[in-house]
Amino acid sequence: MANKKKEDTKKINKSTKTVEKNNNGISQINRFNILFVDLQVIFTILTVIMLIWYIFDDSAWHFLQIIFGITMLIIGYNNKIVYNRPKFAWVYYITGAILIICDILMIIGV
Predict the structure, then answer these.
(1) For residue range 75-101, what is the model confidence (pLDDT) as tens digits?
(2) 105: closest CA among 73, 69, 57?
């Protein structure tokens, strides 16, 4: 009975190690990737601030759209690299690019 408990704890320990580390034994979130997670938090807060500003002043529309587009691009990168969801990352990439391109076209008056 004691051997079975030891085997179960070894399995649990092995399974938690695979969750924390990828196949090479390196954690998915490292110093470089944590920068983009931090940028995602910062740009999400900026997007909320711009949204509140836009509610009170219509002239903030361009700032809101650019910041939201950049936020979407960063979220796409994080989905692909950090969260390991590369197929859904393209949705964020395309949405962010469309937002930025549409805003640039609106600014130049096309």
Answers:
(1) 999 998 888 888 889 999 999 999 999
(2) 69
